[in-house]
Design a protein that fits this description.
231 residues, mainly beta, four-stranded antiparallel β-sheet, 4 helices
């Protein structure tokens, strides 16, 4: 029998910070639950409880992306908030390591990389990125999702140009979301420092798209090697 409003129990999900850089992990904010408005006493609203989460930006910066006709490359320039960040090379390195611009087909795109990885032992949970309402110009948000049980990877803030002939801009603020997440079922989310077993699973497919195309062809092998329990 199908119910109008599903009442799933909360599933345990953990998340952690994983990066190959030596950036201090405390720089990256916690992922927090977007609270449901129970005062409305609406069952449709209440069904969203523990499904929506968000995380604030780790950098306060204005970014402009453009096509350089001289170099024939997609490039960007930035101006970070010096009241929030010191004038050190480490801040420049942080920005350059997390801002990726390029071209796919006829579309220019920009990604802001994040280091958050989620793990669960529930086979039926999908994670999806939602528009964080970052102030932008000439950019259209790109959402993404995948099965959380079988794949460990970070999800990034991503946009494509609306008009390739014009520059694009976005503004990231430390006190505002850089990304929002939707889980297909309610979850109980906790931060965790990954143990050796979890790290081994994360590394087994981390950045695999840099080595192979059509990663679906590697999925069966990857899933067969997954431990029965990660949490």
């Amino acid at each position: 029998m199908h119910n109008l409003f599903n009442k799933f129990k909360e599933t345990d999900v953990v998340y952690g910070i994983y990066t190959e850089r030596k950036t201090p992990s405390s720089l990256f904010p916690n992922v927090t639950k977007t609270e449901t408005n129970y005062e409305l006493k609406c069952p449709a609203v209440n069904t969203t409880s523990a499904k929506y989460y968000e995380v604030n930006s780790f950098i306060d910066v204005d970014i402009e992306i453009f096509y350089n006709k001289e170099t024939k490359q997609i490039e960007y320039k930035y101006d970070f908030n010096t009241s929030k960040h010191p004038l050190f090379d480490t801040v420049h390195d942080l920005i350059k390591a997390h801002v990726i611009v390029g071209k796919k087909g006829n579309q220019y795109d920009v990604q802001i990389l994040t280091p958050y990885i989620f793990l669960t032992d529930n086979k039926d949970i999908e994670i999806t990125t939602l528009n964080p309402d970052v102030p932008t110009e000439n950019l259209s948000f790109v959402s993404g999702s995948f099965n959380l049980y079988s794949w460990a990877r970070n999800l990034n803030l991503a946009y494509v140009f609306i008009d390739n002939d014009k520059p694009a801009k976005l503004k990231l603020s430390i006190d505002k979301p850089i990304l929002k997440y939707f889980f297909s079922k309610p979850i109980n989310l906790k931060y965790k420092t990954f143990n050796d077993k979890q790290l081994k699973f994360i590394k087994s497919n981390y950045n695999i798209v840099k080595y192979r195309k059509r990663i679906n062809n590697l999925y069966t092998t990857h899933l067969q090697r997954r431990p029965k329990k990660l949490l």
